[in-house]
Design brief:
Layout lengths: L31 E12 L2 H9 L7 H14 L1 H4 L8 E10 L5 E12 L4 H19 L7 E11 L6 E2 L2
Antiparallel strand pairs: 1-3, 1-4, 2-3, 4-5
Helix pairs in contact: 2-4
Protein name: Cyclic pyranopterin monophosphate synthase
Pathway: Cofactor biosynthesis; molybdopterin biosynthesis
Keywords: Lyase, Molybdenum cofactor biosynthesis
Length: 166
């Protein structure tokens, strides 16, 4: 529990008693269904958005490629994020859609597992890579795009219970 007299880092689970980084031991945790959803956005010029939505650019359907890239990235999260447990994912869904305000695209990812640790990092990694894939595929026409607001929206399962962004 943190408070005004708690040393900095005392609640960090990836730091051992000597202050060294470690992979958390999850062997005593119950196996449960765990799910996490994350979202992020990429802002772009209106003409870039039209191109991305048309699916007919020189690089094809960039949204479909970004969705596949997000799924593939979720499966490799433990290779990308130090101390992250390798997980057997039950499912990963990535959707790239126009943002509600019309300023670009949003990527949303939901990852699920049956395991001893959560899938928040897998959902966040899926969103990040999907958005970076869009940037890569569209940068020739719009180098001013901005990837932003990558955030966990909700998680369920595990000892810490359910959580959702207010």
């Amino acid at each position: 529990m943190s408070g005004p007299n708690t040393p900095v880092g005392a609640d960090l689970t990836h730091i051992d008693a000597e202050g060294r980084a470690r992979m958390v031991d999850v062997s005593d945790k119950a196996t449960t269904t765990r799910e996490a959803t994350a979202r992020g956005r990429i802002a772009m010029r209106p003409e870039t958005l039209v191109l991305a939505l048309s699916g007919g650019g020189k690089k094809g359907d960039v949204r479909a490629v970004a969705e596949i890239a997000g799924v593939m990235a979720a499966k490799r999260t433990s290779d990308l994020i130090p101390m992250c447990h390798p997980l057997m994912l039950i499912s990963v869904k990535v959707a790239v859609r126009p943002s509600k305000d019309g300023s670009g695209l949003e990527a949303t990812a939901t990852a699920r597992t049956q395991g001893q640790t959560g899938v928040e990092m897998e959902a966040l990694t899926a969103v990040s890579v999907a958005l970076l894939t869009l940037y890569d595929m569209l940068k020739a026409v719009d180098r001013e795009m901005v990837v932003a607001d990558i955030a966990l929206l909700a998680k369920s399962g595990g000892a810490s219970g359910d959580w959702s962004r207010p």
